[in-house]
Amino acid sequence: MNSQTQDTNREDWLLWQFADSALPTGGFVASAGLESATQAGHVTNIESLLLFLSSSIENYAYSSLPFVTDTWWAVEIESSDDEILNYKENDSMNVIDKIMEKIINLDDLYDAYTSNYVTKRASKAQGVAMLTLFTKSFADNDSKTKMKDLVIEKFKLGVRKEISCGHLPICFGLVTKCLGISLERTQHLYLFLFARAILSAAVRLNIIGPYYSQRLLTECQAYVEKSLEKTCKLNSKAAVQTSPLLDILQGRHDKLYSRLFNS
């Protein structure tokens, strides 16, 4: 088996892991505003749920995916492991510092761009979970000098010190790039996980059953592909909210009389 085949097989395996509901990233504690929309009477049946799904995926693609894309490109480490090991310490830290500056700037921009504190809180919690997942499950423990591991360790330390917020789109783009997942697959995975989380919330809110949710998840491919066609090349400066109503519903989550989800 050649190295290219091994890399492809590893990427496929990582995608299966990320798609596994057992992956501890905290995505299932959020409903993306579905719980609030249900209690407010905006989602009452399958038709309104489909409208919520399509609108949410498009809004998420326009508002959040560009930050994933820019972060993925910000991690410009092209050297092989052998070359990295031969770097002088000062040289390697200069490379990391430059990457950190880009990532922190993107994180700050996303924090300023996100209008409601409920979405910010959920994004930070899931972002930290993503960083923790990498360091505990995927980092190379045999070589502490590897550049990509150091990038994530330094960013995670910055989040702990409150130098940076650690929002999910930034952490997701950072982790997938450091794991060697391609940009196209990173973008697809990001929107797939979002759609799956909404449908999981719909099941637990008793809007639909588990079997029908899988049928809807299959149909969500069309929503994801359509949104990706329009947003896969957008950068963070072009990010926009396409549905102000969704933003309002998400922001009102903490005011609900009773809550099953954190957001």
TrEMBL record:
Tagged with keyword Chaperone: yes
Coiled-coil regions listed: none
GO molecular function: nickel cation binding
Keyword match Chaperone: yes
Record keywords, A-Z: Chaperone, Nickel insertion
Source organism, top-level taxon: Eukaryota
A Pfam family it matches: UreF
Entry similarity comment: Belongs to the UreF family.
Protein name: 10677_t:CDS:1
Organism whose genome encodes this protein: Dentiscutata erythropus
